UniProtKB/TrEMBL annotation:
Annotated Cation-transporting P-type ATPase N-terminal domain residues: 5-79
Any GO BP: intracellular potassium ion homeostasis
Family stated for the protein in its record: Belongs to the cation transport ATPase (P-type) (TC 3.A.3) family. Type IIA subfamily.
UniProt source species: Biomaibacter acetigenes
Principal location class: membrane
Taxonomy of the source species: Bacteria, Bacillati, Bacillota, Clostridia, Thermosediminibacterales
InterPro entries: ATPase_P-typ_cation-transptr_C, ATPase_P-typ_cation-transptr_N, ATPase_P-typ_cyto_dom_N, ATPase_P-typ_P_site, ATPase_P-typ_TM_dom_sf, ATPase_P-typ_transduc_dom_A_sf, ATPase_P-type_domA, Cation_transp_ATPase_P-type
Topology in membrane: Multi-pass membrane protein
The enzyme's E.C. designation: 7.2.2.10
Enzyme class: translocase
Protein name per UniProt: P-type Ca(2+) transporter
Amino acid sequence: MENKKWYTLEKKDVSKVLKTHLENGLSSEQAQEKLKSHGYNELVGKRGQTIWEMLLEQFKDFLVLILIAASLVSILIGEVTDSAVIILIVILNAVLGVIQESRASKALEALKKMAAPEAKVIRDGHIKEIPARELVPGDLVLLEAGNYVPADLRLVESMNLKIDEASLTGESVPVEKNADIVFQEEVPLGDRTNSAFMGTVVSYGRGKGVVVSTGMNTEIGMIAEMLESYQEEDTPLQKKLAELGKILGIASLAICGVVFLLGLLRGVPVLEMFMTAVSLAVAAIPEGLPAIVTIVLALGMQRMVKRHSIIKKLHAVETLGSTTVICSDKTGTLTQNEMTATRIYTDGKMYSLSGEGYRPYGEFTFDNSKIDPKADAHLQLLLTIGTLCNDAKLEESGTEKDNEKSWRILGDPTEGALVVAAAKAGIYTSDLEKTMPRLQEIPFDSDRKRMTTFHPAGQGYVAYIKGAPDVMLNLSTTIYKSGKVVPITDEDRKNILEANHHMATQALRVLAIAYKDVNAIPQEPDPADIEKDMTFVGLIGMIDPARPEAREAIRVCKGAGIRPVMITGDYKDTAVAIAKELGMLEDESRVLTGAELDTLSDEELTAAAKDVSVYARVSPVHKLKIVDAIKKNGHIVAMTGDGVNDAPALKKADIGVAMGITGTDVAKETADMILTDDNFASIVAAVEEGRVIYSNIRKFIFFLLSCNIAEILIIFVAMLIGLPVPLKPIQLLWLNLLTDAFPALALGMEKKEPNIMNRPPRKPDEPIMDTRMKWQIAIQSTFMTVSVLGVFIYALKFTNGVEAARTYAFATLIFSELLRAYTSRSETYSVFSIGFFANKFMVGGTVISFLLLLIVLYVPYLRGVFDTTFLSFYDWDIIVAFGLIPFVAAEVSKIFLRRN
Ligand code: ATP
C-alpha cells in the first residue's frame, strides 16, 4: 500500500483507501491503531554505540593498556593480589567512564527529542498539534508557510501553496502545488504537484493533505536508507580542552619518564618503578575531562529547559556566556502578545471599546457616551473587513472561571483581537462566511506588512485588506467618509496619521483597514496589482501590554554588560512607547526606522549600530543588515526570530533564538536555541545559565589540574631529594578513582555565584586557563606538595617504617584533595560565604570518597592489599593538621583576589 501512485488517485479515493475523512481526519482510536501497525514516522538513523562498545573504547587508551600489561607481568612474577586489584581498579574506572558517557549521551538525546518537530493535524474533527513522529497514513495535515512537510502527503487543498523541494530534488525554485490535479500516468517526483514530500519546506501559502506514507517509506526515507546519525561537532570549549588534555598528557608522560629514570638511579626495582610511573601518569592525566564537560553542558541544558529555553547546539551554551547584545522582537517577546482592540478610528471619529482579553463582550463609546455599533455603517464595514480578512478563530476554551466562560484564540493574537472586536459588535465570522466565503487570498508577510482576502459581494467581488497604517495609507486613493466613497485628501491623510500617532504613542499597535472592488477572482493574485488604489476605511488600535518580567530582565542585562536591542516590524511610536516602559530607551534619538536604515551605507549603519536601541518598521532583510552591523562592532549577538524570512538573520547571529510558540519550523530549525515561552526574560535566564556552566567548567578544571599537578610534584620531588616513593601504584590509582570523578562532577553542578550577572561578558577568545588561574594552580599544587611531603617526612622520622609514612601521605593527599574540591567551588568567594554544605552533590561525593578511603584503611584484608597501616586518632590529628594547609592557603589567596 505504501508505494501506491497516490498522485494518480482522486482525493475521494485516497480517503477511501486510507479510511480517513477529508474534513474530520482520523479518529484518535484509528490513529492509535495505525501507529501500532505502521510504526513511528521517523527516519531511522545509524544506531548509537552499545554499552560493550563504549566499555571497549575505554580500554583503547594507550596508558591503560600499558598498565594492564605491566600488571600481567607482575602477576607472572608472583605479585598476584596487588596486580589483580590494579586491574580491578582499572575496570572500575572504565565502568565509571561508561556511566558518565552514557549519561551524557542520554541527556543529549533527551534534549534532541524536545526540539523535535510538531505537525498540525485534524483528528476527531479538531485541529491539534502533535509530535510529527506520531503521524500515521490517513492523517489530515495542515500546512502553512514556514512548515516542514512532516510526511509524504497527497494534497487535498492548496491556497497559493508553494513548496521548496531542494532537499529532495535539488530544484531551487519552489514548486507551485495544486491539489485539484489528478495525473493519469506516472510522472517524476519533481512534477507531482498534487503531492508534498517529507522534509521539504512550505515557502508560501497554505494547504491541507492526507498522509500517504511515513518514516522510511517516504520518498526521502527511501533515498536515505541508512541515514548517518547526526554527529554534533565539538564545541570550541571542547576543542580547547582536548588540546589542553593533549599537552598535559605529553607533559605528564615526559615527567613520569623522568620519575622512572630517577627511581632507577635511586635503586628502586625496575618493575616496581615502572608500575609507579605508569600509575602516576594514569592518575595525573585527566582522562575523564571530556565526558565530564559533556555531562555538565548537558545537565546545564536541562536546567535551561526548566527556564524555558531549549538549546539545540552545544556550542550555544558557551556562546551564551559571552553574549554582549540581545536583539529581540517586540511583539510576544517583550510584550505579552495578548492583544485587545481598544480604539477604532473611522469617518474622522475616535471610538473606544471596553472589555478585557478575548471575552467577546464590551461596549463601544464615542465622547464617553455609549453607542450602538450596529447602527454605524463605518464601524460595521471596518469590523467586517477585520474579521473576514483574518485567519484567527475565537473559541470557548472549555474551562469556566467565576461562572463565566473563558475564551481563547487559535491563531495570531493580532488577528484574534479583530475577531473579538467584531464579536463585541455582534459580527461573527461564521455568519458572514455563509454569504461571503473566502475565494482567494494573498497571505500576510512581514515584508509587505499586509494581507488580502477575496470574497463575493453583490454581483461582483471584493478584496478586503488589512495591514500597517503607513503602508496602507500610501496605497489608498479613496476613502469611505460619511457613507460615501470619495477621493482621499491631504487633510484626510493628515488626520489619519495624527490618529495613528495618537494611538501609537499610547503603545497601541495599529492596523489599517481598507477594501477594493474587483471584477474577477485572480488565479494567481499579484500583490503589486491588487493592493493599490484601495478605499481606506479606518484604523484599529490594540493594546499589547509589556511583559512585567521583561522589565526586570532588561535591568539584569544592563547590569551584566549586555545591551538589549528591540527590532520590530511595528510602528516607531508604538515601539518607542513600549521601549520606554521597559526601560530600554533613555534617549529617544537612539531609534532608527527601516526607511532611515535604507539610506545608510554599511559603514554608517555600523557606526549607528553602536548606540541604536530600537529599530522600528523593519522587515526581515533589515534584520540581517542589523546583525551584521552589530557584529562588525565586535559584539556577540543573540537574535530572535519567528518567520521563514528571519532564517538568514538567525543563521548570521552568533546565537539564533527561535520562538517556540509562534515560530515557524524553518526558524526553529535554523536557530541555535528555542524559547518555549517566547519570552525575552528566558533569553536572559539562558545567558545566566550559560555563564554558570562556563564558570563551573572552569572550577573543575582548576580543581583537577591543581590536584593532578600536585600528585606528579609529590613523587617527582621525593625522587629528587632522595626520599622513598611516597605513594604506591595501587594507592595512586585508588586516589585517582576517589578524587577525580565525584568531586569534579559535583563542581559542575555548583549553583550560580551571587555576582554572576554583575560581571562583564566573557571574551570569546579568552583561554580557559587565564594567567590568574595558572598562578592559582601553581600556588595550590605547591602547597599540596609541601603538605604531603611534609607529613611524609614527619612520619618517616616519628613513626615506624615507610609503610606507615606512605599511609600518612596517602590519607593526607586524599583529605586535602577533597577539601580542595570545596575551595574550588568559587574562585573568589570564600567557601563559608557561599555555604560550606550548600552543594549537596559535593557533600555526597566527598563523603563517599572519604568512606572509600576509610575502607582501605580499616578493613584488615584491604590494608594488606593497599599496603596501608592502621591510623589512630592521634595519627589523624597530624594528618588533618597537614591536610588543612592547602585549604587555608586557598582561602587566604581568595582574600587577595577579592581585594584586587
Ligand atoms: P515584531 O517584529 O516585534 O514581532 P511585528 O509583529 O509588528 O513586530 P511583523 O509580524 O513583521 O512584526 O509585522 C509587521 C507589521 O505588519 C505590523 O506592525 C503590522 O502593522 C502588520 N501586521 C502584523 N500582523 C498582521 C496581519 N496578520 N495582517 C495584516 N497586517 C499585519
